[in-house]
Amino acid sequence: LKIDRDTMAEVTVLGMLGNPVGTTQMQISLAHGFGDGKEESCGYARDAVSRLLQGENIDFYLAMSLDGISVLNDLAGGVTVTLEDDFSAADPAMTKGTTLTLQGDQAETYVRTRRSIGVGTNEARMVRQEAYIKQLSVQLDEKLQKDQNFAVDAYDALQPYLTTSMAKGQLVNEAWAAKDYTRLDTIKPDGTYQVGEDGFMEFYPDADALQQAVLQLFYEKVE
Question: For the packed helices 122-146 and 168-178, what is the interaxial angle rounded to 10 degrees?
């Protein structure tokens, strides 16, 4: 499920003493900004996603800091992409039309840069991120198929950048099991974009589309 960072959702807000005082509607990406930047922030983000998904329980969470992107990319052997936009202001090797295997900081540049790239919207960046993640997942699956210890090695390399409610053993086991999954197409509910009164972009998901996403992800149809 792909959730636009500008999705308007009920987010927990804190009072002057740092305690939750209720919720208010704002961009869902701001939920993580409340808290300590670690477990507390992840909890607020999890709660906002749960409310957005009509109260569905979020069993576990895993967050990775931006510094982990290059590490994960290189663990996969580098991800090959064809650049549909010009990134040369950040890296001279990343010119429009070039096909290259991203290494190190190039991966973060590719998935993170927005304002100076193409149309500059988060929606366009999400398309780029989805294509990157799709190829990254294939390569990680291949690594797991060849070496059962790869999941352990990957966790150890990424651990400094991770915040998660899952124990190491559980996370490694889930990664090992995932190599045999059939990956379905990413779901992104339809909706409308508009510029808010504060000048920032807002995305309002269609209620019916959101409900269909919940049904598809969390329920099985009874024949």
Answer: 90
